[in-house]
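Newbie here. two chains, one complex. Structure please?
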Amino acid sequence: MAIEIEQPSSVELSKVAVSETHGENSPYFAGWKAYDEDPYHESNNPSGVIQMGLAENQVSFDLLEEYSEQHSEAFTWGKGAPGFRENALFQDYHGLQSFREAMASFMEQIRGGRAKFDPDRVVLTAGATAANELLTFILADPGDALLVPTPYYPGFDRDLRWRTGVKIVPIHCDSSNNFQITPQALEAAYKEAEAMNTKVRGVLITNPSNPLGATIQRSVLEEILDFVTRKNIHLVSDEIYSGSAFSSSEFISIAEILESRKYKNSERIHIVYSLSKDLGLPGFRVGTIYSYNDKVVTTARRMSSFTLISSQTQHLLASMLSNKKFTENYIKTNRERLRKRYEMIIKGLKNAGIECLKGNAGLFCWMNLSPLLEEQTREGELVLWDSMLHEVKLNISPGSSCHCSEPGWFRVCFANMSEQTLEIALKRIHDFMQQRERQRKPISSQ
Amino acid sequence: MKLLSRKATCNSHGQNSSYFLGWLEYENNPYDEVKNPKGIIQMGLAENQLSFDLLESWLAKNPDAAGFKKDGQSIFRELALFQDYHGLPAFKQALVDFMSEIRGNKVTFDPSNLVLTAGATSANETLVFCLAEPGEAFLLPTPYYPGFDRDLKWRTGVEIVPIQCTSSNGFQITETALEEAYQLAQKRNLKVKGVLVTNPSNPLGTTMSHTELNLLVNFISAKNIHLISDEIYSGTVFSSPGFISIMEILKERSFEDTEVWNRVHIVYSLSKDLGLPGFRVGAIYSNDDMVVAAATKMSSFGLVSSQTQYLLSAMLSDKKFTKNYISENQKRLKQRHKKLVSGLEKAGISCLKSNAGLFCWVDMRHLLSSNTFEAEIELWKKIVYDVKLNISPGSSCHCTEPGWFRVCFANMSEETLKLSMQRLKAFVDSTTKTNHQSIENSRRKSLPKWVFRLSFDDRETVHGER
């Protein structure tokens, strides 16, 4: 029996493996941990932490469940499972033709038919997380940069940078103009990259925006398009919340702008989509890249080998999304329900004396708590966030985790819980604000 | 403009290799018993189609699993929302139990050391991302699966340095070969981070011997590097000497709680054993907590669909089913393997003695016009375009000796396999005949026309027929 002599130093893992670039030690994720340890439950744990940091869409499941009851063949490959073996063997990175067609059609419906999508340009990936990383691998080399407007989804720090070695240079946006992207901000970000000797390969926008919960205006999209064309760089438009715009007409996709420009200079444009938000199916891992660049489509397809969608899931969703009656009703109903939820939370927050950015899309609102900060600093924001988490028992996402340049803003999700739970969350906020008011009075009366 | 990254414009995806070109040819002219009986028979795809009926009958008896029901209740909502990269606990438990069962329960696995990924393709890439920097290297015994050139190198920037194996000893790994590979890496200024082996081997179809496994453990121990054991064919071992997992060796040598224990990682998948490549179910198993932690986070880029996790957790937790499946599947593979081997024998072709996998490593050296890779490709093209069989040339697997081919046997019906062997025999017979041109000129009239179209000059005509 060999007796192993301990080596003095263990063989190292890669830098990527040990780096913190996965970002999981940030408050964004710390809040989740606190929730996991003490989750709210109506009857079992009514004083637990209410999760308002998770952008899930739970308002329209009944529609999906109803569909599944009426169309069991999509789930079981039909009686006697005749399509089973073909489906089980299908690992072609082109993806199921019927599914790509259904996806393209669904994306068109969401945009009210104002843009057309070619199924042959649809590349399938296991979620938008994979799609964004994949595009970054294709569009940029290690050490290069993507410009991303702040505030942005905290996950981008991992998705765009971790394994790719690509940098994010922020395009600073602020409340002076409702956090809209300006040509000045674009130029400033580009110059900042240049000053660091970093090559900018593209701009990545999320439209509708996470965490703002607002669509990007047409004029801004035109400016961004002009900017990337002038600089000869790419534009990635992450449109995963497109189906969550409360009114169809208020969302303008980059695809529409391209159509109006007759697809001139469109080889630099790429759209990311997913069913995780609009359909509420994050577990199924369905993402897509839609690119107007042939080489990107070909390369992305090959790279998607690392992140294919389960053929079982493609089969199910091909059936569901090609059912026009179902999708039309779903899109319409889902928008309406999200709008109602949004109005409910805005009203509740207003009653508590809290203002939010005017939003028109998404599963969250962008709340302004800067009046409550002891110090108008990131530290001050984190102190408040900590109170919200441990005293008010609400997990909300601090703006600093979204790289917001102004302290005091928070993203608050409203679609991942029942209406009753939302009422309770609003009451807790209300009580918290009242308590704060009461605490102020003694000081001001001195 | 639209400059793309170096990764996008390089050829490291490997798709211009003959391995993939053969597939393209097949796709343009696929054999079909009824619609295209003269088409190309696909023998280059390592799929397991022999045991679908077992899966189908399980599905018929257990409709709830695919129907998102648990104990009669719909769990659609829970599954739709489940995106935890730790994976569905019931599925991970079922999977480690299955892995254990395949190894005759000689080793057990802890589900918390298992990371789920969208296929072994993703698992292998993820592990390399975790273990090596761009520019560093992994040693791989040749011949190896062509896909590794993409999976291990493309986005990771890591290099592969071959451990040359030869037919002199059945392509087994030797200490000399390991050392030479290591030296070669050093000469190329490449830091070696580990060895990656496939056991059972693709394309050899053989299990690694006790000796080889021990050699590997000694080697990685001495060099202070990692070992990745890709065991995706572990359930396809159909005859002796039987499968020995690297974990068994470590256990035998009481390596638990040593440094080496933490440097051995296993890759698994359900694509080969269960024949479910479309479902994208792969896994990394590691005893190193840091590797598990990093790989888990990385799996965000390739999670397994919760719908699929649920279906398979139900299936693999059915121990009656798994027991029967494992043994029946092995039986069928054994029979099929025998049919291929005897078919080849009739054509005067031998292959490496094998006991696993979905393919044979076939020796066609005697059919080469010269002992070169050019001659191998020449022969391969004849087989693809004229004999209409898509098989994989050894050069695409980085084999050092020309003349070897990987021929798959489990991705078609028995009749089709029979036909492929008939075609091959006819080809070999005619080659032997045309090699003795001075004899039997008159007999040529009785041979089919295509037999004469063996030179490249006639390629145009062949293409025109498609």
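Moderator note: Confidence is low (pLDDT under 50) at residues 1-10 of chain A. Chain A touches chain B through 78 residues (CB under 8 Å). Thread marked as resolved.
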